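PROTOCOL LOG
Step 1. Enter all chains and additional molecules of the complex.
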Amino acid sequence: SQTIHQWPATLVQPVGSPLSLECTVEGTSNPNLYWYRQAAGRGLQLLFYSVGIGQISSEVPQNLSASRPQDRQFILSSKKLLLSDSGFYLCAWSVLGQPQHFGDGTRLSIL
Amino acid sequence: DAKTTQPTSMDCAEGRAANLPCNHSTISGNEYVYWYRQIHSQGPQYIIHGLKNNETNEMASLIITEDRKSSTLILPHATLRDTAVYYCIVRVGGLIIQGAQKLVFGQGTRLTINP
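Step 2. Run joint prediction.
Step 3. Record the structure below.
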């Protein structure tokens, strides 16, 4: 069966520091991968999606970037975090025609 | 893009059926209705989806009206663990690129199961 792993589960970072969140999927090949963010008390917002290695599409202009160095690895990064980057970051995967499945998320607090 | 309208919150007694409505009056013919739920501090969990026929799985049933303008998610015997925010989502069919599926999450319905 397929599984998705996100880490770390929680992260506290100072303003201006870099960020790297990692997501990996097991049990499937060539998945579509997604990064979402959920600000406190708000709905999920799609940030990036990827249909293959090295292929990244950005949904909203922001202080973040994404990369997909391997088929089942999706990384969310920032060079300098802002206070507004705080939130709950979720990675998801899907294969053609099937529903998306989400990881357990990373709760990011910026101080 | 089809949008959905859901009640902000609902309550249901434990052991009873929870019926969560969703309006999607602008849904297009090739758009599916998806339901997810999010338990506090966890990632969303897929529940069920359908196009025009009613669907049932081990978690829930989905009833879609004949005109497809609304649907109801039914949790047949609600338990305390079903307390969550439930999202009704219409898949944005025009933005499917090589199978990538952009889901647009609204505010959902906060369902509270009371003992």
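Step 4. Note key features.
The CA atoms of residues 41 and 89 of chain A lie 14 Å apart.
Chain A touches chain B at residues 32, 34, 36, 42-46, 49-52, 57, 59, 88, 90, 92, 94-97, 99-105, 107 (CB under 8 Å).
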